[in-house]
């Protein structure tokens, strides 16, 4: 774990380089506040159309998150900064650094005045949002920043001491990068961003929610793409994943269990996806979250009873959401999400926001036939709808919304 981030006074630091010309490479002058190591390069194309070939991304990080039909922009020259903040864990092998708290910052030559800050979905590394988010916000002129959240992989729970420490670090790393990226933007363009957006998918969407609840002054708004919902009393993944693990083997063998799966929140229309998610996501997700938030539990994951696990309640309280957002938020969630069911997640979070009297700050789009990962659209093109295009629409919607508030 690392020391808690101390916010930097942005206004004091906006005294750096003047605006750069389209042909001037300021990459060597840029410094990321707090970074232990950084490496800068001026690239002919900051999108994956160019960075795959130049080695400035890792396709393994974003594999499966978008459908093959999702368009690929290109031709966005600018500066890319890779680096890491001080940390004592080493689950991220990107760039051959074997060091966590890695980040990437991209600064397009044709800048629209905005910055998009992201945390990664699942337990992926810092390039995970490159196809789904970075490519397209760069094409719109935004600067882009992403963090690996400070720990990665299926053993992320080993980072920290107390239950919940690894996830608490996600919060701090997102904040740390948002503060630092604003300074770098000011260095590059001669002024701070006029608009800063938080965006993310799944665990990254959860971080958007948490940031707008707890650090709203850093952002103008956010886009939450199927963020994970953690509440102390439920719902949360511990309340719907164990019932699936108990019921599915019997159902798959032709016995009872189907009604239990539907009762856990998964619509009958998603049944064609259940086997894949049982084999790929359900047990793994339950186990790695449980190891992080309730390491003292001994037993089968299918038998896990969150209601009786007081230590887990205490750990979840450290990371729980409240719905008390302080900036405009757009939520996207697919109706056929077969990992984080919409009825146990974003439907509930929208109600939480309304209960806090913040409904005027929230717009919620339920994406018919949307699933948790767009990669499955390639397998079921007639049964699933991609969410990534709706994210692009949400960026434009949020821009218009914010412009009318000013």
Protein model, in words:
With 406 residues, the chain is α/β, with parallel strands linked by helices. It has two domains: 10-231 and 323-405, Rossmann fold, CATH 3.40.50.1820; 237-319, no CATH class. 35% of the residues lie in helices and 14% in strands. It contains twelve helices and nine strands. Strands 1-2-3-5-4-6-7-8-9 form a nine-stranded mixed beta sheet, with helices on both faces. Helix 4 (130-139) links the parallel strand 4 and strand 5. Helix 4 (130-139) crosses helix 12 (388-405) and helix 7 (237-252) packs antiparallel against helix 9 (274-293). The longest helix is centred in the middle third of the chain and has 25 residues, at 165-189.
Characteristics:
406 residues, alpha/beta, Rossmann fold, 2 domains, 9-stranded mixed β-sheet
**Percentage of β-strand residues:** 5-15%
- Decide which structural class fits the backbone: alpha/beta
Q: CATH fold name of the largest domain, please?
A: Rossmann fold
- Number of helical regions: 12
Q: What is the total tally of β strands?
A: 9
Summarize the structure.
Helix content is 35%, strand content 14%. It has 406 residues and is an alpha/beta fold. The protein has two domains: 305 residues, Alpha/Beta hydrolase fold, catalytic domain (Rossmann fold, 3-Layer(aba) Sandwich), CATH 3.40.50.1820; 83 residues, no CATH class.
How are the secondary structure elements laid out?
Blueprint: H1 10-13, E1 37-43, H2 48-54, H3 59-62, E2 78-84, E3 102-108, E4 114-119, H4 130-139, E5 143-147, H5 165-189, E6 195-201, H6 203-214, E7 221-225, H7 237-252, H8 258-263, H9 274-293, H10 310-319, E8 329-334, H11 346-355, E9 362-367, H12 388-405
Parallel strand pairs: 4-5, 4-6, 6-7, 7-8, 8-9
Antiparallel strand pairs: 1-2, 2-3, 3-5
Helix pairs in contact: 4-12, 7-9
């Amino acid at each position: 774990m690392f020391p808690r981030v101390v916010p930097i006074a942005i206004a004091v630091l906006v005294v750096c380089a003047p605006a750069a010309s389209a042909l001037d490479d300021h990459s060597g002058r840029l410094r990321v506040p707090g970074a232990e190591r950084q490496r800068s390069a001026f690239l002919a194309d900051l999108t994956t159309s160019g960075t795959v070939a130049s080695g400035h991304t890792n396709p393994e990080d974003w594999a499966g998150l978008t459908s093959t039909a999702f368009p690929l922009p290109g031709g966005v020259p600018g500066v890319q900064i890779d680096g890491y903040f001080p940390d004592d864990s080493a689950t991220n092998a990107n760039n051959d650094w074997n060091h966590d708290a890695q980040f990437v910052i991209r600064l397009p030559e044709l800048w629209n005045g905005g910055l998009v800050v992201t945390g990664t979905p699942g337990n992926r590394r810092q390039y995970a949002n490159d196809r789904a988010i970075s490519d397209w916000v760069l094409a719109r002129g935004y600067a882009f920043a992403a963090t690996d959240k400070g720990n990665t992989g299926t053993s992320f729970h080993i980072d920290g001491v107390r239950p919940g420490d690894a996830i608490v670090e996600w919060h701090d790393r997102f904040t740390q990068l948002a503060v630092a990226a604003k300074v770098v933007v000011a260095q590059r363009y001669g002024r701070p961003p006029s608009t800063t957006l938080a965006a993310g998918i799944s665990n990254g969407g959860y971080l958007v929610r948490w940031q707008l609840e707890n650090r709203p002054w850093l952002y103008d708004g956010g886009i939450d793409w199927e963020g994970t919902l953690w509440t102390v009393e439920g719902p949360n993944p511990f309340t719907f994943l164990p019932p699936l693990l108990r019921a599915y083997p019997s159902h798959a063998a032709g016995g009872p269990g189907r009604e239990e799966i539907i009762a856990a929140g998964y619509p009958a229309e998603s049944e064609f996806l259940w086997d894949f998610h049982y084999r790929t996501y359900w047990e793994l997700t339950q186990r790695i979250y449980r190891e992080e938030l309730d390491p003292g539990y001994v037993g089968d994951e299918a038998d896990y009873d969150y209601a009786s696990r007081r230590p887990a309640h205490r750990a979840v309280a450290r990371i729980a959401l409240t719905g008390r957002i302080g900036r405009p938020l757009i939520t996207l969630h697919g109706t056929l999400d077969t990992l984080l069911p919409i009825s146990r997640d974003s439907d509930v979070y929208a109600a939480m926001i309304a209960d806090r009297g913040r409904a005027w700050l929230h717009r919620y789009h339920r994406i018919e036939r949307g699933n948790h990962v767009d990669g499955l659209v390639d397998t079921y093109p007639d049964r699933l709808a991609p969410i990534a295009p709706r994210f692009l629409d949400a960026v434009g919607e949020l821009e218009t919304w914010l412009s009318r508030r000013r």
